[in-house]
Amino acid sequence: MESTARKLDGQVAIIVGSARGIGEAIAHTFSNEGARLVLVDLEKMKPQLDGVAQAINQQGGRAVALTADCSDDRQVHSLVDETVRRFGKIDILINSAGFRGPLVPVQEITEKQWDDVILYNLKLVFLCCRAVLKQMIKQKSGSIVSISGTAGREGMALRGSLCAAKWGLVGLTQTIAKEAGPYGIRANVICPGGMDEPDLREMYAQRAKNLGMTVEAHEQQILALTPLRKYAKHDEVAKAAVFLASSDSSHTTGESLNVSGGRLMS
């Protein structure tokens, strides 16, 4: 019996924000599909990041853990240079780092809060894309996949700074798709809905309080707008990332793929 071909065999992927959550799930899923991985997260996440890399390597994969603050251009370039030094190329960039920011009306967002949300959700992605694109253009190939969300598809009460950043991410991705397409480079976005994770429930509790609702009523309201009546799991988003990173989506670029249980439909 012939073995099933793996979708990412021999490809090199940088996964920014891979110590936990969606990024960690993408790391494991990509490894199972044959990718060689450079896992990236902040220094404070090093124990978790090392644990992800160790687990992948113990399972027969190949993963390197590198700490970097990707909001710093110098560290981003060092990361890219180190990846090329070790592996000779970069086939895939996954932007999975992020920062939700304040849950307050626009008039109550401080300038510092606004700047931080833009920095970690938009400028960070720009810096990573800019550095990796230079290598991908030399190769005349590559795929960039960035994680956005509901905030990148519609305005949301109490999420003004995050919506601005995530909408900007979609615009940046579409621009890269148009500019880099002639070099064989694709760029796409995944927009998950609510995720099945403790962080989301903590955020919903705070948002419900600020909206004057109970947590239960707020969750019921959100799930009532989701036809599948459930939250997304990390592995469901990871499988979407495999699709967009692999040749399965070879004629797909500049798109936003919703993984929202029907919460988003455009």
Give a concise summary.
The protein has helices at residues 21-32, 46-58, 73-87, 111-139, 160-180, 198-211, 215-224, 234-245; strands at residues 12-16, 36-41, 62-67, 92-95, 142-147, 185-192, 256-259. By secondary structure, it is an alpha/beta fold.
What does it look like?
By secondary structure, the chain is an alpha/beta fold. It has helices spanning 21-32, 46-58, 73-87, 111-139, 160-180, 198-211, 215-224, 234-245; strands at residues 12-16, 36-41, 62-67, 92-95, 142-147, 185-192, 256-259. Helix 1 crosses helix 8, helix 3 (73-87) runs parallel beside helix 4 (111-139) and helix 6 crosses helix 7 (215-224).
Main attributes of the structure:
single chain, alpha/beta, 266 residues, Rossmann fold, 7-stranded parallel β-sheet
